[in-house]
Amino acid sequence: MNVDADSRGADRLQEGKVHSMKLRDLAGDQFPELEAQLEGPAGLLDISGLSSDSRNVEPGNAFVAVTGTKADGAGFIADAAGRGAAVAIASQPVDAAIPVLAVKEPRRFLSIAAARFYGRQPETMVAVTGTAGKTSVASFTRQIWAHAGHAAAMIGTTGVVSPTRNEYGALTTPDPVSLHKLLAELADEGVTHASMEASSHGLDQSRLDGVKLSAAAFTNLGRDHMDYHPTVEAYMAAKMRLFDTLLPKGAPAVIFADDPWSPQAVQAAADAGHDVRTVGRKGDYLTLKRVEHFRHKQTAEIHIGDEIFEVDIPLAGDFQVANALVAAGLAMSTGVEPKAAMAALEKLVGASGRLELVGHTKDGALAYVDYAHKPDALENVLNSVRPFTTGRVVVVFGCGGDRDRGKRPIMGEIACRLADVVIVTDDNPRSEEPAAIRAEIMTAAACASEIGDRATAIREAVGMLTSGDTLIVAGKGHEEGQTIGGVTLPFSDHAEVRKALEELKS
Ligand SMILES: CC(=O)N[C@H]1[C@@H](OP(=O)(O)OP(=O)(O)OC[C@H]2O[C@@H](n3ccc(=O)[nH]c3=O)[C@H](O)[C@@H]2O)O[C@H](CO)[C@@H](O)[C@@H]1O[C@H](C)C(=O)N[C@@H](C)C(=O)N[C@H](CCC(=O)O)C(=O)O
Ligand SMILES: Nc1ncnc2c1ncn2[C@@H]1O[C@H](COP(=O)(O)OP(=O)(O)OP(=O)(O)O)[C@@H](O)[C@H]1O
Ligand SMILES: N[C@H](CCC[C@H](N)C(=O)O)C(=O)O
Ligand SMILES: [Mg+2]
Protein backbone atom coordinates (compact mmCIF):
# COMPACT_ATOMS: atom_id res chain seq x y z
CA MET A 1 0.00 0.00 0.00
CA ASN A 2 1.45 3.30 -1.03
CA VAL A 3 0.44 6.89 -0.52
CA ASP A 4 -1.49 7.95 -3.55
CA ALA A 5 -1.25 11.70 -4.00
CA ASP A 6 -3.13 11.78 -7.27
CA SER A 7 -4.72 8.55 -8.36
CA ARG A 8 -5.21 9.57 -11.99
CA GLY A 9 -1.56 10.54 -12.34
CA ALA A 10 -0.53 7.35 -10.63
CA ASP A 11 -2.64 5.13 -12.90
CA ARG A 12 -1.18 6.62 -16.02
CA LEU A 13 2.36 6.21 -14.73
CA GLN A 14 1.68 2.55 -13.96
CA GLU A 15 0.28 1.87 -17.42
CA GLY A 16 3.62 3.07 -18.80
CA LYS A 17 1.87 5.51 -21.17
CA VAL A 18 3.20 8.99 -21.76
CA HIS A 19 2.39 10.65 -18.52
CA SER A 20 0.83 14.08 -18.48
CA MET A 21 -1.28 16.16 -16.14
CA LYS A 22 -3.30 19.35 -16.37
CA LEU A 23 -1.40 22.25 -14.89
CA ARG A 24 -4.21 22.97 -12.41
CA ASP A 25 -4.03 19.38 -11.08
CA LEU A 26 -0.27 19.67 -10.78
CA ALA A 27 -0.48 22.80 -8.67
CA GLY A 28 -3.22 21.50 -6.35
CA ASP A 29 -4.58 23.92 -3.79
CA GLN A 30 -1.44 24.88 -1.90
CA PHE A 31 -0.75 28.03 -3.89
CA PRO A 32 -3.60 30.51 -3.39
CA GLU A 33 -1.74 33.09 -5.48
CA LEU A 34 -2.15 30.74 -8.48
CA GLU A 35 -5.89 30.17 -8.19
CA ALA A 36 -7.03 33.01 -10.46
CA GLN A 37 -4.27 32.28 -12.99
CA LEU A 38 -5.24 28.59 -13.15
CA GLU A 39 -8.90 29.33 -13.80
CA GLY A 40 -7.89 30.63 -17.23
CA PRO A 41 -6.68 28.53 -20.18
CA ALA A 42 -3.27 27.99 -18.54
CA GLY A 43 -4.90 25.69 -15.97
CA LEU A 44 -5.92 23.30 -18.76
CA LEU A 45 -2.46 22.98 -20.29
CA ASP A 46 -1.21 19.39 -20.50
CA ILE A 47 2.13 19.16 -18.72
CA SER A 48 4.51 16.34 -19.70
CA GLY A 49 7.10 16.88 -16.95
CA LEU A 50 8.92 19.43 -14.82
CA SER A 51 12.35 20.95 -14.98
CA SER A 52 14.23 23.74 -13.21
CA ASP A 53 17.04 23.65 -15.75
CA SER A 54 16.16 25.07 -19.15
CA ARG A 55 18.87 22.91 -20.73
CA ASN A 56 16.92 19.78 -19.78
CA VAL A 57 13.47 20.99 -20.87
CA GLU A 58 11.50 18.66 -23.12
CA PRO A 59 8.41 19.56 -25.17
CA GLY A 60 5.34 20.09 -22.99
CA ASN A 61 7.33 20.55 -19.75
CA ALA A 62 6.63 23.15 -17.12
CA PHE A 63 9.84 25.13 -16.56
CA VAL A 64 10.20 26.30 -12.96
CA ALA A 65 12.54 29.30 -12.69
CA VAL A 66 14.39 29.23 -9.37
CA THR A 67 17.04 31.58 -8.06
CA GLY A 68 20.43 29.95 -7.58
CA THR A 69 23.75 31.15 -6.22
CA LYS A 70 24.92 32.34 -9.64
CA ALA A 71 21.84 33.04 -11.75
CA ASP A 72 18.10 33.71 -11.66
CA GLY A 73 16.27 30.99 -13.56
CA ALA A 74 13.86 33.65 -14.89
CA GLY A 75 16.65 34.62 -17.29
CA PHE A 76 16.30 31.21 -18.97
CA ILE A 77 12.55 31.27 -19.68
CA ALA A 78 13.16 32.18 -23.33
CA ASP A 79 15.58 29.25 -23.63
CA ALA A 80 13.01 26.92 -22.03
CA ALA A 81 10.30 28.20 -24.39
CA GLY A 82 12.62 27.59 -27.35
CA ARG A 83 12.93 23.94 -26.27
CA GLY A 84 9.18 23.49 -26.15
CA ALA A 85 8.20 24.31 -22.55
CA ALA A 86 4.41 24.71 -22.31
CA VAL A 87 4.52 27.12 -19.39
CA ALA A 88 6.94 28.75 -16.96
CA ILE A 89 6.51 29.28 -13.24
CA ALA A 90 8.54 32.12 -11.75
CA SER A 91 8.58 34.43 -8.75
CA GLN A 92 7.41 37.37 -10.89
CA PRO A 93 5.49 37.81 -14.13
CA VAL A 94 7.85 37.91 -17.13
CA ASP A 95 7.07 38.73 -20.77
CA ALA A 96 7.66 35.58 -22.80
CA ALA A 97 6.43 33.52 -25.74
CA ILE A 98 4.78 31.07 -23.31
CA PRO A 99 2.45 31.75 -20.35
CA VAL A 100 4.40 32.66 -17.19
CA LEU A 101 2.65 32.13 -13.85
CA ALA A 102 3.88 33.84 -10.70
CA VAL A 103 4.24 32.02 -7.34
CA LYS A 104 5.83 33.29 -4.14
CA GLU A 105 8.15 30.31 -3.70
CA PRO A 106 9.04 28.64 -7.01
CA ARG A 107 11.27 26.02 -5.32
CA ARG A 108 8.36 24.95 -3.11
CA PHE A 109 6.12 24.81 -6.16
CA LEU A 110 8.66 22.55 -7.91
CA SER A 111 8.61 20.08 -5.01
CA ILE A 112 4.84 20.00 -4.51
CA ALA A 113 4.22 19.72 -8.25
CA ALA A 114 6.85 16.95 -8.61
CA ALA A 115 5.16 15.01 -5.79
CA ARG A 116 1.78 15.32 -7.53
CA PHE A 117 3.21 14.52 -10.96
CA TYR A 118 4.87 11.27 -9.88
CA GLY A 119 1.97 10.57 -7.56
CA ARG A 120 3.31 8.19 -4.91
CA GLN A 121 6.01 7.38 -2.43
CA PRO A 122 6.77 4.57 0.04
CA GLU A 123 4.05 4.69 2.68
CA THR A 124 6.38 5.28 5.62
CA MET A 125 9.11 7.84 5.12
CA VAL A 126 11.45 9.47 7.61
CA ALA A 127 14.12 12.15 7.20
CA VAL A 128 17.18 12.90 9.30
CA THR A 129 19.08 16.15 9.57
CA GLY A 130 22.18 17.27 11.49
CA THR A 131 25.77 18.15 10.66
CA ALA A 132 27.14 14.64 11.12
CA GLY A 133 25.60 11.20 11.17
CA LYS A 134 22.82 11.61 8.58
CA THR A 135 24.08 8.93 6.20
CA SER A 136 24.76 6.54 9.06
CA VAL A 137 21.33 7.09 10.65
CA ALA A 138 19.51 6.73 7.32
CA SER A 139 21.41 3.51 6.65
CA PHE A 140 20.86 2.09 10.14
CA THR A 141 17.14 2.90 10.02
CA ARG A 142 16.84 1.04 6.72
CA GLN A 143 18.68 -1.93 8.21
CA ILE A 144 16.45 -2.05 11.32
CA TRP A 145 13.30 -1.92 9.19
CA ALA A 146 14.68 -4.66 6.95
CA HIS A 147 15.42 -6.86 9.99
CA ALA A 148 11.84 -6.29 11.10
CA GLY A 149 10.66 -7.67 7.76
CA HIS A 150 9.86 -4.47 5.85
CA ALA A 151 10.86 -3.76 2.24
CA ALA A 152 13.06 -0.77 3.05
CA ALA A 153 15.19 1.76 1.19
CA MET A 154 17.54 4.64 1.99
CA ILE A 155 18.40 7.74 -0.01
CA GLY A 156 21.47 9.80 0.82
CA THR A 157 25.08 10.81 0.22
CA THR A 158 26.15 7.27 -0.62
CA GLY A 159 23.25 6.85 -3.07
CA VAL A 160 20.15 4.66 -3.03
CA VAL A 161 19.93 1.28 -1.34
CA SER A 162 16.77 -0.84 -1.58
CA PRO A 163 16.01 -4.56 -1.82
CA THR A 164 16.86 -4.33 -5.53
CA ARG A 165 19.23 -1.35 -5.80
CA ASN A 166 22.64 -0.21 -4.68
CA GLU A 167 23.25 2.93 -6.74
CA TYR A 168 25.98 5.54 -6.27
CA GLY A 169 24.51 9.03 -5.75
CA ALA A 170 25.62 12.60 -6.38
CA LEU A 171 23.68 14.70 -3.89
CA THR A 172 22.81 14.08 -0.23
CA THR A 173 19.24 15.27 -0.85
CA PRO A 174 18.35 14.86 -4.54
CA ASP A 175 16.60 17.62 -6.49
CA PRO A 176 12.81 17.33 -6.20
CA VAL A 177 12.12 16.06 -9.70
CA SER A 178 14.60 13.17 -9.51
CA LEU A 179 13.59 12.57 -5.88
CA HIS A 180 9.89 12.10 -6.63
CA LYS A 181 10.58 10.04 -9.75
CA LEU A 182 12.74 7.79 -7.56
CA LEU A 183 10.10 7.60 -4.78
CA ALA A 184 7.43 6.54 -7.29
CA GLU A 185 9.77 3.86 -8.67
CA LEU A 186 10.56 2.59 -5.17
CA ALA A 187 6.85 2.45 -4.34
CA ASP A 188 6.24 0.50 -7.56
CA GLU A 189 9.01 -1.92 -6.57
CA GLY A 190 7.11 -2.64 -3.36
CA VAL A 191 9.25 -0.56 -0.99
CA THR A 192 7.06 0.41 1.96
CA HIS A 193 9.65 2.14 4.18
CA ALA A 194 12.28 4.70 3.16
CA SER A 195 14.71 6.84 5.11
CA MET A 196 16.36 9.89 3.65
CA GLU A 197 18.93 12.51 4.54
CA ALA A 198 17.82 16.12 4.78
CA SER A 199 20.87 18.28 4.06
CA SER A 200 20.79 21.95 4.99
CA HIS A 201 21.00 22.82 1.28
CA GLY A 202 18.12 20.46 0.58
CA LEU A 203 15.99 21.93 3.36
CA ASP A 204 16.87 25.53 2.45
CA GLN A 205 16.06 24.85 -1.20
CA SER A 206 12.73 23.14 -0.38
CA ARG A 207 13.86 19.89 -2.03
CA LEU A 208 11.84 17.78 0.45
CA ASP A 209 8.73 19.93 0.64
CA GLY A 210 6.64 17.41 -1.30
CA VAL A 211 7.61 14.36 0.76
CA LYS A 212 5.06 13.05 3.29
CA LEU A 213 7.00 12.27 6.45
CA SER A 214 5.95 9.92 9.25
CA ALA A 215 8.82 10.96 11.55
CA ALA A 216 12.00 13.05 11.48
CA ALA A 217 15.26 13.22 13.41
CA PHE A 218 18.10 15.55 14.42
CA THR A 219 21.60 14.34 15.29
CA ASN A 220 23.84 17.33 16.12
CA LEU A 221 25.09 20.68 14.87
CA GLY A 222 28.66 21.74 14.12
CA ARG A 223 30.54 23.94 11.72
CA ASP A 224 29.68 23.17 8.10
CA HIS A 225 28.77 24.89 4.86
CA MET A 226 29.72 28.33 6.16
CA ASP A 227 30.26 29.27 2.52
CA TYR A 228 26.50 28.86 1.96
CA HIS A 229 24.81 29.85 5.22
CA PRO A 230 25.61 33.36 6.52
CA THR A 231 25.71 32.38 10.22
CA VAL A 232 25.53 29.26 12.40
CA GLU A 233 22.06 30.42 13.49
CA ALA A 234 20.92 30.58 9.86
CA TYR A 235 22.39 27.10 9.33
CA MET A 236 20.44 25.80 12.36
CA ALA A 237 17.29 27.54 11.15
CA ALA A 238 17.61 25.80 7.77
CA LYS A 239 17.89 22.44 9.58
CA MET A 240 14.88 23.27 11.76
CA ARG A 241 12.67 23.66 8.66
CA LEU A 242 12.43 19.87 8.94
CA PHE A 243 10.48 20.30 12.18
CA ASP A 244 8.81 23.69 11.87
CA THR A 245 7.64 23.36 8.24
CA LEU A 246 7.87 19.82 6.89
CA LEU A 247 6.97 17.27 9.57
CA PRO A 248 3.19 17.02 10.01
CA LYS A 249 2.07 18.35 13.39
CA GLY A 250 1.98 15.70 16.12
CA ALA A 251 4.37 13.31 14.36
CA PRO A 252 7.36 11.84 16.25
CA ALA A 253 10.51 14.02 16.30
CA VAL A 254 13.51 11.93 17.39
CA ILE A 255 16.28 14.14 18.79
CA PHE A 256 19.76 13.20 19.98
CA ALA A 257 19.82 14.60 23.51
CA ASP A 258 23.53 15.08 24.21
CA ASP A 259 24.56 17.74 21.69
CA PRO A 260 24.97 21.40 22.71
CA TRP A 261 22.27 22.26 20.13
CA SER A 262 19.83 19.55 21.34
CA PRO A 263 17.78 21.89 23.60
CA GLN A 264 17.19 24.24 20.66
CA ALA A 265 16.10 21.36 18.43
CA VAL A 266 13.76 20.06 21.17
CA GLN A 267 12.29 23.55 21.51
CA ALA A 268 11.74 23.89 17.75
CA ALA A 269 10.04 20.48 17.56
CA ALA A 270 7.90 21.14 20.65
CA ASP A 271 6.89 24.58 19.35
CA ALA A 272 5.75 22.93 16.13
CA GLY A 273 3.51 20.58 18.14
CA HIS A 274 5.46 17.37 17.54
CA ASP A 275 5.77 14.28 19.70
CA VAL A 276 9.34 14.90 20.92
CA ARG A 277 11.36 11.72 21.69
CA THR A 278 14.90 12.27 22.92
CA VAL A 279 17.63 9.60 22.76
CA GLY A 280 21.08 9.47 24.37
CA ARG A 281 22.51 9.78 27.86
CA LYS A 282 20.05 12.57 28.58
CA GLY A 283 17.36 10.91 26.46
CA ASP A 284 13.95 10.02 27.80
CA TYR A 285 12.73 7.75 24.96
CA LEU A 286 15.92 5.68 24.66
CA THR A 287 18.26 6.25 27.58
CA LEU A 288 21.91 5.29 27.26
CA LYS A 289 23.13 4.23 30.68
CA ARG A 290 26.56 2.79 29.97
CA VAL A 291 28.92 2.08 27.04
CA GLU A 292 32.01 -0.11 26.96
CA HIS A 293 34.33 0.38 23.98
CA PHE A 294 36.15 -2.50 22.36
CA ARG A 295 38.23 -2.53 19.19
CA HIS A 296 35.51 -3.59 16.80
CA LYS A 297 32.36 -3.29 18.89
CA GLN A 298 30.73 -1.44 21.75
CA THR A 299 28.41 -2.75 24.43
CA ALA A 300 25.63 -0.35 25.32
CA GLU A 301 23.08 -0.55 28.12
CA ILE A 302 19.90 1.03 26.83
CA HIS A 303 16.77 1.66 28.87
CA ILE A 304 13.41 1.82 27.13
CA GLY A 305 10.66 2.56 29.64
CA ASP A 306 10.99 -0.18 32.26
CA GLU A 307 12.95 -2.50 30.00
CA ILE A 308 16.74 -2.79 30.04
CA PHE A 309 18.67 -4.01 27.00
CA GLU A 310 22.36 -4.83 26.81
CA VAL A 311 23.29 -4.50 23.16
CA ASP A 312 26.53 -5.35 21.33
CA ILE A 313 26.86 -2.82 18.50
CA PRO A 314 29.39 -4.26 16.04
CA LEU A 315 30.93 -0.88 15.10
CA ALA A 316 33.83 1.22 16.39
CA GLY A 317 33.37 4.86 17.40
CA ASP A 318 31.41 6.47 20.20
CA PHE A 319 29.44 8.47 17.65
CA GLN A 320 28.07 5.30 16.10
CA VAL A 321 26.23 4.58 19.36
CA ALA A 322 24.55 7.97 19.03
CA ASN A 323 23.65 7.22 15.41
CA ALA A 324 22.35 3.76 16.35
CA LEU A 325 20.11 5.27 19.04
CA VAL A 326 18.65 7.86 16.66
CA ALA A 327 18.00 5.15 14.06
CA ALA A 328 16.36 2.87 16.64
CA GLY A 329 14.23 5.84 17.74
CA LEU A 330 13.05 6.39 14.16
CA ALA A 331 12.37 2.69 13.57
CA MET A 332 10.41 2.37 16.83
CA SER A 333 8.51 5.57 16.04
CA THR A 334 7.36 3.94 12.80
CA GLY A 335 6.15 0.71 14.35
CA VAL A 336 9.15 -1.55 15.05
CA GLU A 337 8.94 -3.23 18.47
CA PRO A 338 11.71 -2.23 20.92
CA LYS A 339 12.95 -5.81 21.20
CA ALA A 340 13.23 -6.18 17.42
CA ALA A 341 14.97 -2.82 17.09
CA MET A 342 17.54 -3.70 19.78
CA ALA A 343 18.17 -7.09 18.16
CA ALA A 344 18.75 -5.38 14.82
CA LEU A 345 21.40 -3.08 16.36
CA GLU A 346 23.54 -6.16 16.95
CA LYS A 347 23.61 -6.79 13.19
CA LEU A 348 24.35 -3.24 11.97
CA VAL A 349 26.74 -2.76 9.08
CA GLY A 350 28.42 0.66 8.94
CA ALA A 351 27.75 2.91 5.94
CA SER A 352 30.59 2.71 3.41
CA GLY A 353 33.60 4.80 4.46
CA ARG A 354 32.30 5.73 7.93
CA LEU A 355 35.08 4.63 10.28
CA GLU A 356 35.36 1.54 8.10
CA LEU A 357 38.15 -0.90 8.87
CA VAL A 358 39.85 -1.56 5.55
CA GLY A 359 42.70 -3.77 6.75
CA HIS A 360 45.66 -4.16 9.05
CA THR A 361 49.41 -4.61 8.84
CA LYS A 362 50.92 -7.98 9.70
CA ASP A 363 51.69 -6.79 13.22
CA GLY A 364 48.12 -5.65 13.74
CA ALA A 365 48.09 -1.87 13.13
CA LEU A 366 44.58 -0.92 11.92
CA ALA A 367 43.80 1.17 8.83
CA TYR A 368 40.43 2.93 8.64
CA VAL A 369 38.73 5.04 5.98
CA ASP A 370 36.43 7.76 7.31
CA TYR A 371 34.32 10.55 5.80
CA ALA A 372 35.24 13.24 8.35
CA HIS A 373 35.57 16.38 6.22
CA LYS A 374 34.47 18.93 8.79
CA PRO A 375 35.97 19.93 12.14
CA ASP A 376 33.59 18.19 14.57
CA ALA A 377 33.68 14.99 12.60
CA LEU A 378 37.49 14.96 12.52
CA GLU A 379 37.61 15.64 16.24
CA ASN A 380 35.13 12.84 16.90
CA VAL A 381 36.82 10.25 14.80
CA LEU A 382 40.27 10.94 16.23
CA ASN A 383 38.87 10.80 19.77
CA SER A 384 36.99 7.59 18.96
CA VAL A 385 40.06 5.56 18.04
CA ARG A 386 42.27 6.79 20.89
CA PRO A 387 40.85 4.43 23.57
CA PHE A 388 41.87 1.30 21.64
CA THR A 389 45.13 2.65 20.17
CA THR A 390 48.13 1.57 22.20
CA GLY A 391 50.60 3.09 19.71
CA ARG A 392 50.22 6.24 17.59
CA VAL A 393 47.16 7.71 15.88
CA VAL A 394 48.17 8.62 12.31
CA VAL A 395 45.85 10.79 10.19
CA VAL A 396 45.88 11.65 6.48
CA PHE A 397 43.44 14.36 5.42
CA GLY A 398 42.86 17.44 3.28
CA CYS A 399 40.10 19.98 2.65
CA GLY A 400 37.91 20.34 -0.44
CA GLY A 401 38.36 23.24 -2.83
CA ASP A 402 35.47 25.65 -3.55
CA ARG A 403 34.10 24.90 -0.08
CA ASP A 404 34.17 26.69 3.28
CA ARG A 405 37.75 28.03 3.65
CA GLY A 406 37.33 28.84 7.34
CA LYS A 407 37.35 25.17 8.33
CA ARG A 408 40.88 24.56 6.97
CA PRO A 409 43.01 25.90 9.87
CA ILE A 410 40.44 24.61 12.36
CA MET A 411 40.89 21.07 11.04
CA GLY A 412 44.68 21.52 11.00
CA GLU A 413 44.65 22.47 14.68
CA ILE A 414 42.40 19.52 15.60
CA ALA A 415 44.59 17.04 13.72
CA CYS A 416 47.79 18.16 15.47
CA ARG A 417 46.09 18.25 18.85
CA LEU A 418 44.53 14.79 18.64
CA ALA A 419 46.80 12.72 16.37
CA ASP A 420 50.45 11.79 16.78
CA VAL A 421 51.34 11.89 13.09
CA VAL A 422 49.56 14.21 10.62
CA ILE A 423 49.91 14.18 6.84
CA VAL A 424 48.09 16.94 4.97
CA THR A 425 47.11 16.00 1.43
CA ASP A 426 44.63 16.87 -1.33
CA ASP A 427 40.87 16.22 -1.21
CA ASN A 428 39.01 17.38 -4.31
CA PRO A 429 40.82 20.71 -4.87
CA ARG A 430 38.28 21.48 -7.63
CA SER A 431 39.01 24.89 -9.18
CA GLU A 432 41.44 25.98 -6.42
CA GLU A 433 45.22 25.72 -6.36
CA PRO A 434 45.87 22.53 -4.34
CA ALA A 435 49.03 23.90 -2.67
CA ALA A 436 47.13 26.99 -1.51
CA ILE A 437 44.48 24.83 0.22
CA ARG A 438 47.15 22.78 1.96
CA ALA A 439 48.95 25.97 3.03
CA GLU A 440 45.75 27.22 4.73
CA ILE A 441 45.54 23.97 6.72
CA MET A 442 49.26 24.10 7.53
CA THR A 443 49.00 27.58 9.12
CA ALA A 444 47.52 25.84 12.18
CA ALA A 445 49.20 22.44 11.79
CA ALA A 446 52.86 22.98 12.63
CA CYS A 447 53.23 19.27 13.48
CA ALA A 448 52.11 18.11 10.03
CA SER A 449 53.99 17.07 6.95
CA GLU A 450 52.59 17.82 3.52
CA ILE A 451 52.24 15.35 0.64
CA GLY A 452 49.95 16.68 -2.09
CA ASP A 453 49.44 13.46 -4.02
CA ARG A 454 46.86 11.53 -2.03
CA ALA A 455 47.98 8.06 -3.11
CA THR A 456 51.56 8.85 -2.07
CA ALA A 457 50.36 10.28 1.24
CA ILE A 458 48.42 7.09 1.97
CA ARG A 459 51.37 4.88 1.00
CA GLU A 460 53.71 6.86 3.29
CA ALA A 461 51.25 6.65 6.19
CA VAL A 462 50.68 2.91 5.80
CA GLY A 463 54.42 2.37 5.50
CA MET A 464 55.16 3.97 8.86
CA LEU A 465 52.59 1.94 10.86
CA THR A 466 53.94 -0.19 13.68
CA SER A 467 52.22 -2.46 16.19
CA GLY A 468 49.42 -0.73 18.14
CA ASP A 469 49.09 2.19 15.66
CA THR A 470 45.80 3.27 14.07
CA LEU A 471 45.60 5.03 10.70
CA ILE A 472 42.65 7.23 9.76
CA VAL A 473 42.41 8.31 6.13
CA ALA A 474 39.78 11.01 6.44
CA GLY A 475 37.60 13.10 4.13
CA LYS A 476 36.57 10.98 1.16
CA GLY A 477 34.83 7.98 2.72
CA HIS A 478 32.79 6.28 -0.01
CA GLU A 479 33.88 8.69 -2.77
CA GLU A 480 35.19 7.17 -5.98
CA GLY A 481 36.96 10.16 -7.53
CA GLN A 482 39.43 12.99 -7.01
CA THR A 483 38.30 16.25 -8.62
CA ILE A 484 41.20 18.41 -9.78
CA GLY A 485 40.31 21.40 -11.94
CA GLY A 486 37.19 20.37 -13.81
CA VAL A 487 38.27 16.74 -14.10
CA THR A 488 37.31 13.88 -11.80
CA LEU A 489 39.84 11.04 -11.91
CA PRO A 490 38.97 7.63 -10.45
CA PHE A 491 40.25 7.49 -6.88
CA SER A 492 39.32 5.41 -3.86
CA ASP A 493 40.82 5.66 -0.37
CA HIS A 494 39.80 2.03 0.18
CA ALA A 495 41.69 0.87 -2.90
CA GLU A 496 44.79 2.93 -2.08
CA VAL A 497 44.91 1.68 1.51
CA ARG A 498 44.52 -1.91 0.35
CA LYS A 499 47.20 -1.47 -2.29
CA ALA A 500 49.63 0.01 0.24
CA LEU A 501 48.95 -2.83 2.70
CA GLU A 502 49.56 -5.38 -0.06
CA GLU A 503 52.85 -3.70 -1.02
CA LEU A 504 54.01 -4.01 2.58
CA LYS A 505 53.38 -7.73 2.55
CA SER A 506 55.23 -8.38 -0.72
C1 LIG B 1 25.11 25.50 -4.05
C2 LIG B 1 23.82 24.87 -4.44
O1 LIG B 1 23.16 24.26 -3.63
N1 LIG B 1 23.46 24.98 -5.73
C3 LIG B 1 22.15 24.55 -6.19
C4 LIG B 1 21.57 25.66 -7.04
O2 LIG B 1 22.42 25.75 -8.16
P1 LIG B 1 23.19 27.06 -8.53
O3 LIG B 1 23.14 28.02 -7.40
O4 LIG B 1 24.53 26.66 -9.05
O5 LIG B 1 22.30 27.52 -9.76
P2 LIG B 1 22.59 28.72 -10.73
O6 LIG B 1 23.71 28.38 -11.65
O7 LIG B 1 22.66 29.97 -9.94
O8 LIG B 1 21.26 28.70 -11.63
C5 LIG B 1 19.97 28.98 -11.10
C6 LIG B 1 18.96 28.15 -11.84
O9 LIG B 1 19.04 28.42 -13.24
C7 LIG B 1 19.06 27.20 -13.93
N2 LIG B 1 19.74 27.35 -15.24
C8 LIG B 1 21.06 27.65 -15.31
C9 LIG B 1 21.68 27.75 -16.55
C10 LIG B 1 20.92 27.57 -17.74
O10 LIG B 1 21.39 27.64 -18.88
N3 LIG B 1 19.59 27.28 -17.59
C11 LIG B 1 18.99 27.18 -16.38
O11 LIG B 1 17.78 26.90 -16.32
C12 LIG B 1 19.78 26.24 -13.02
O12 LIG B 1 19.46 24.88 -13.30
C13 LIG B 1 19.24 26.65 -11.66
O13 LIG B 1 18.03 25.98 -11.39
O14 LIG B 1 20.28 25.29 -7.47
C14 LIG B 1 20.27 24.09 -8.28
C15 LIG B 1 18.83 23.82 -8.71
O15 LIG B 1 17.98 23.74 -7.61
C16 LIG B 1 20.83 22.93 -7.45
O16 LIG B 1 20.86 21.76 -8.25
C17 LIG B 1 22.24 23.29 -7.03
O17 LIG B 1 22.82 22.25 -6.28
C18 LIG B 1 24.08 21.80 -6.79
C19 LIG B 1 23.87 20.62 -7.75
C20 LIG B 1 25.03 21.36 -5.69
O18 LIG B 1 26.13 20.90 -5.95
N4 LIG B 1 24.66 21.47 -4.44
C21 LIG B 1 25.47 20.98 -3.32
C22 LIG B 1 26.35 22.05 -2.70
C23 LIG B 1 24.48 20.46 -2.30
O19 LIG B 1 23.28 20.67 -2.40
N5 LIG B 1 24.98 19.75 -1.29
C24 LIG B 1 24.11 19.25 -0.26
C25 LIG B 1 24.84 19.01 1.03
C26 LIG B 1 25.94 17.99 1.03
C27 LIG B 1 26.49 17.80 2.44
O20 LIG B 1 25.73 17.50 3.37
O21 LIG B 1 27.69 17.98 2.64
C28 LIG B 1 23.38 18.01 -0.78
O22 LIG B 1 22.21 17.82 -0.41
O23 LIG B 1 23.97 17.24 -1.55
N1 LIG C 1 26.84 11.34 15.41
C1 LIG C 1 28.01 11.80 15.00
N2 LIG C 1 28.67 12.75 15.72
C2 LIG C 1 29.85 13.23 15.29
N3 LIG C 1 30.51 12.81 14.20
C3 LIG C 1 29.92 11.86 13.45
C4 LIG C 1 28.64 11.32 13.80
N4 LIG C 1 28.30 10.43 12.87
C5 LIG C 1 29.28 10.42 11.96
N5 LIG C 1 30.28 11.26 12.30
C6 LIG C 1 31.50 11.59 11.53
O1 LIG C 1 31.05 12.21 10.32
C7 LIG C 1 31.44 11.43 9.18
C8 LIG C 1 30.28 11.38 8.21
O2 LIG C 1 29.25 10.58 8.78
P1 LIG C 1 27.88 10.45 7.99
O3 LIG C 1 28.19 10.24 6.58
O4 LIG C 1 27.03 9.47 8.67
O5 LIG C 1 27.32 11.94 8.23
P2 LIG C 1 26.52 12.92 7.26
O6 LIG C 1 25.77 13.84 8.17
O7 LIG C 1 25.73 12.13 6.31
O8 LIG C 1 27.67 13.70 6.49
P3 LIG C 1 27.51 14.50 5.08
O9 LIG C 1 26.72 15.71 5.37
O10 LIG C 1 28.91 14.83 4.76
O11 LIG C 1 26.88 13.57 4.11
C9 LIG C 1 31.83 10.06 9.72
O12 LIG C 1 32.76 9.47 8.87
C10 LIG C 1 32.36 10.40 11.08
O13 LIG C 1 33.67 10.89 10.97
N1 LIG D 1 28.94 16.87 0.18
C1 LIG D 1 30.17 17.46 0.64
C2 LIG D 1 31.22 16.40 0.67
C3 LIG D 1 32.62 16.87 0.91
C4 LIG D 1 33.62 15.75 0.88
C5 LIG D 1 35.04 16.14 0.73
N2 LIG D 1 35.70 15.02 0.17
C6 LIG D 1 35.22 17.38 -0.16
O1 LIG D 1 35.29 17.20 -1.36
O2 LIG D 1 35.29 18.47 0.37
C7 LIG D 1 30.56 18.61 -0.27
O3 LIG D 1 30.49 18.46 -1.48
O4 LIG D 1 30.87 19.66 0.27
MG1 LIG E 1 25.50 12.26 4.31
From TrEMBL:
Question: Keyword set for this entry?
Answer: ATP-binding, Cell cycle, Cell division, Cell shape, Cell wall biogenesis/degradation, Cytoplasm, Ligase, Magnesium, Nucleotide-binding, Peptidoglycan synthesis
- Give a yes or no for keyword Cell division in this entry: yes
| Residue ranges constituting the Mur ligase central domain according to the UniProt record | 128-331
**Catalyzed chemical reaction(s):** UDP-N-acetyl-alpha-D-muramoyl-L-alanyl-D-glutamate + meso-2,6-diaminopimelate + ATP = UDP-N-acetyl-alpha-D-muramoyl-L-alanyl-gamma-D-glutamyl-meso-2,6-diaminopimelate + ADP + phosphate + H(+)
Binding residue positions for meso-2,6-diaminopimelate: 403, 427-430, 475, 479
Q: Which residues bind UDP-N-acetyl-alpha-D-muramoyl-L-alanyl-D-glutamate?
A: 54, 172-173, 199, 205, 207
Q: Which residues carry this modification: N6-carboxylysine?
A: 239
Q: What name has this protein been given in UniProt?
A: UDP-N-acetylmuramoyl-L-alanyl-D-glutamate--2,6-diaminopimelate ligase
